[in-house]
Design brief:
Helix content is 54%, strand content 4%. By secondary structure, it is mostly helical. It has a 3-stranded antiparallel β-sheet, with no helix packed on it. A hairpin with a 5-residue loop joins strand 1 (77-79) and strand 2.
């Protein structure tokens, strides 16, 4: 996904997040029902804007998909021994091939951390991402919703998969090892020992790739 397309999606998410609601005096839904509904819709749009920004950031710099976003809990965000933030979320889908989830410990860029913190102040839930009804995000409905989001942003012809592949494309451009990409996506490849894939790996391992993504897509941001 080109940088300008990514920035256009972020800009639309920010516009949604800045939606302001008009306060309604009293609790008389009969008198103020329309105004109350407008206020609730505005609040919902603002929350979804914050959520989309966080999702866009994660997909771009961690390669997370809809299932990953649904599985993500606030406790999965951690700090390394040297103090930088990272997300610790094994790829459970890989367990079908190797019997155990493949470890993924991916450093986070400052903008991603900021987006997640802003969303947490609104959601206040163990689930990082939620559906409009307050339940955990449903991966089956996300692709269609994302398509609508892209259309509203004036972006067509690009999918969530293009966004998730940013890390792989950047790694290829800079001739990084295929094992770095495997770790980034939690992939299982033929001919690679299971022990290598399943065992833990320090998040420092992926800092070079994440910094390259930050350099190209986020004005030179680096892991801090």
């Amino acid at each position: 996904m080109p940088v300008d397309i990514f920035q256009a999606l972020l800009a639309h998410a920010d516009r949604m997040a800045s939606t302001k609601s008009t306060k309604v005096n009293g609790n008389d839904f009969g008198k103020n029902g329309k105004a109350m509904r407008q206020m609730q819709l505005a609040e919902s749009d603002a929350r979804r804007g914050l959520q989309y920004r966080a999702i866009l950031m994660l997909a771009c710099q961690t390669g997370f998909g809809w299932v990953d976003c649904s599985d993500l809990r606030t406790t999965d965000a951690k700090r390394s021994s040297s103090g930088f933030p990272y997300v610790d979320l094994p790829r459970y889908k890989s367990a079908r091939k190797v019997g155990k989830p493949v470890e993924r410990r991916i450093p986070l860029l400052p903008s991603t951390v900021k987006a997640l913190e802003a969303l947490a102040r609104v959601n206040q839930s163990q689930h990082v991402f939620k559906s409009d009804n307050g339940s955990a995000l449903k991966p089956t409905t996300c692709p269609k919703e994302f398509e609508k989001f892209c259309q509203a942003a004036g972006v067509e012809g690009w999918t969530f998969k293009h966004l998730r592949n940013v890390g792989s494309n950047v790694a290829d451009e800079h001739d990084l090892s295929s094992r770095v990409i495997d770790r980034f996506h939690g992939r299982v490849l033929k001919g690679v020992k299971r022990a290598y894939l399943v065992k833990s790996r320090k998040p420092e391992y992926l800092i070079p790739l994440v910094n390259l993504i930050g350099a190209e897509y986020l004005d030179g941001e680096t892991v801090q």
